[in-house]
């Protein structure tokens, strides 16, 4: 039997219309129609496919496996443009994979009827939310089961593209992640500076009406805390700790040699630094392919796989005790070079006849223009309050004077000074002051 999917809009009829066999075929056709779309069109197509089964005004997803845009929304602009990750997070944390929930939740700035679908098809889970009209009839269990199955399929597909670090998806991820990170940083810095300046004015003892000042201060503090929490949530979804990323790699490599005489040695990174998700995905994919390539040699009795953070790069090393005759051609028809080219990395092979081969992949942790940007603005990593402290420190003020001027405690000043020294990579207040004057 030939299954033909046309370009015409494809929606799933309501469950009572279809017999079991027809419903299965329709679901399979719908799933195929969704995952064959470009990455940016998957959510809109999924929403269109589900519209006949579960009518809704907007759809939103929070997908922790997606490096370039973990949050997406689509639908009626009145709803879709107002949905935020802060509103999605409670549903994400309370959701249970495989058990769709329908009820009311704060979404798009108001209390609305929603359907929330969680999946564990990815390591950290993914959430789909459908925003429904007021008075909409509850969805039937059969309809919810189809929504769950399609969401599991879609997230598994996208997660596979990320995990395998396919060059096309990787290029899109890096480009989108760079743009997104720059915009978030600019907006965050602007709002943080505005709120910090507002707090400075409100905390001034020269202003009257203590009640109004206290209320405004609380609002500003709450806004600043929410801004920082939002940035931390976004960072957690777009990054992985390098030691945890390597542990995932180790779990995937051990089964490959479970019944092999070759001994696998693992060199975990001695760092807890966070790296971009696309870098972690690429490191795991390259390590797996290099391991499979060196195992093709004969004889090989020991293979060492290790990661290390060396300056601006993630260094992925695979070393064996084989004949030492491996070359670039010996790596076979892999996409290693394409993956590294996307991220601006390189591959080095060091064969020693009779002793083995060491293959090293260097993956930049940042984009090529990031170091140059940091060099032109060495103070760019500092927050608004840290810049205020550094400005006064550079003027020769001591901690007590800084605390009095900024209306904060002396211990808080010490905390900020320690953070400033760490971020600037200097060892003393004098060095920090010199760097500030040079930048200014």
UniProtKB/TrEMBL annotation:
Iron found in the keyword field: no
Residue ranges of coiled coil: 221-248
Sorted UniProt keywords: Coiled coil, DNA-binding, Transcription, Transcription regulation
Domain HTH luxR-type residues, every copy: 375-440
Transmembrane helix found in the keyword field: no
SMART domains in UniProt: HTH_LUXR (SM00421)
Pfam families the UniProt entry points to: GerE (PF00196)
Name used for this protein in its record: Helix-turn-helix transcriptional regulator
Organism (species): Streptomyces cirratus
Upper taxonomic lineage: Bacteria, Bacillati, Actinomycetota, Actinomycetes, Kitasatosporales
